[in-house]
Each structure stands twice: as structure tokens, then as C-alpha cells.
Amino acid sequence: MVLIGPPGAGKGTQASILAAHYHIPHISTGDMLRQEVKLSTTIGRQIKDCLAAGNLVSDSMILGLVEMRLQQMDCRQGFILDGFPRSQVQAEATHALLERLAKPLTAVVQLIMPDEEIVTRLSFRRVCSECTRTYHLLYNAPKTEDCCDVDGAPLIQRADDTENSIRNRLTVYHRQTEPVVEYYRRTPLLKEISAEGEVNSITQAILSALAKVAA
Ligand code: ADP
Predict the structure, then answer these.
(1) Quick one: which of 71, 90, 117, 118 could link to 8 by a disulfide (CB 3.0–4.6 Å)?
(2) Ligand 1 shell residues, CB under 6 Å
(3) What is the average pLDDT score of the chain?
(4) What is the CATH number of the domain that holds 163?
């Protein structure tokens, strides 16, 4: 399945819950790219500034990474794509790729959230520097200040969680990713879910929409 929605709508949070529930991998293209930057690989050095500004990396680069990832053994029973496809070109290429791999999509879950709420959410977001678990300084604060509850590693603010970059990511979302939602709206795959409210109730809404697909 694909999880699609604006930055800060909770795709990462929901994707990891769903991945544990269905025992399938959570594939976050944002996490994959940030890992390249962290390790300062050739790709990482090329994309560092692009990520910090909140622009999309090239379609060809991301398609190459996703294609390699989907061919790994753990994707045999399914996978959750978080942050991909994010442009019309990526959506069309994904369709062709999944046909070639004989892994058709079961559903595309759209998380819906108004822009104003997003800026507040993301400015207070902190992320574990090791396991990428996310926190919100007001609504989901860590037990010990600036430390991850799971592994104790320091929490950091993502380079693109500054106000300028958040606003740019929203513009990029409306311009480049919303057409992808429209693309899936023309298929029976799209499930629209409100991303406002408690994490648990949003998970339940997604699970019940997916149960209907499976039934
Ligand atoms: P968010 O959804 O919060 O903006 P992500 O972690 O999904 O953040 O992505 C962070 C950044 O990684 C994006 O702003 C973009 O630069 C890059 N990125 C992630 N996925 C893609 C993609 N499918 N195509 C192009 N760039 C991507």
C-alpha cells in the first residue's frame, strides 16, 4: 500500500504502526534519503541541500532506490510506501514497476490535514538521531528531555523542519504531490482519512478502511 499526505500529517507514525500490525516493511523514502546524507555517501552529498530546502530529489534517483528496495526479500508479502510516489512521473513509473514485479497495490491511503495545523506540528517535532522515532515537544514529549525513550539517543530537529522549509514543502506538496492523489482518485484504490485527532483513532480509521478492501 501507499500512504500519501502532506508533510507532518503523520504518515511516518501511522506507517510504522501498520507495518508492525501487518508484519510488512515500512519503506520511507525520506528516511532512506536522510540515511544517505547521514552516511555522507555520494548520493547523500548530492542531495543534502535539496533535502534541507524541502525540494524533491530527482525522480530518477528516487525510482532507482525504491526499485532496489522493493526487490529485497522482506517485501515479498507486501510493503508500506511512505513518501513515495510523490510526483506524477513517480506515480506512473510506480505503476509500471509494480506490474513488472507482479506486486499490485492494494490501497492508497490519503491522510488529510489543513496547512495551518502542519506548521505547528512540524515546528515542535523532534526525531531520534538513531532510530528515527518522532516526538512532539507539547503533545508527545520524551520522558527525559532531548533523549529518545527507546534507545536514549539524542533527539534532533530535522534540517527541513524550519519554518521556511516547512512552507516550501507544503507548496511542493500542493504543486507536485496533489496531482498524484488525483491520479489515484480515478482508481478504486484511494481511501481518504482525516489525520486530525488521536494517533490511535486515526490508526483505527485506516484499519477499518483497509479491512473493507481485504473483504
Ligand atoms: P515530509 O513528508 O515530512 O516532508 P519525508 O521524510 O517524507 O518528509 O521527506 C523528506 C524529504 O526527502 C523531502 O522533502 C524530499 O526532499 C525528499 N524525498 C522524500 N521522498 C521523495 C520522493 N518520493 N521524491 C523526491 N524527493 C523525496
Answers:
(1) 118
(2) 7-8, 29-30, 33, 50-51, 54-57, 62, 83-84, 86, 90, 160, 169
(3) 95
(4) 3.40.50.300
Does 132 have pLDDT greater than 90? no
Q: Which three cell numbers stand for residue 16?
A: 510504522
SS3 154: strand
pTM of the model: 0.91
The residue whose CA is least distant from atom 14 of ligand 1 is 54
* Structural domains of the chain, count: 1
Report the pLDDT value the prediction gives residue 154, as an integer from 0 to 100.
97
CA-CA distance, 75 to 199, in Å (whole number)? 26
Domain that holds residue 151: 2-214
Give the atom of ligand 1 at the shortest distance from the alpha carbon of 173.
4
Residues 6+ apart with CB under 8 A from 58: none
> What are the residue numbers of the active site?
11, 86, 125, 158, 169
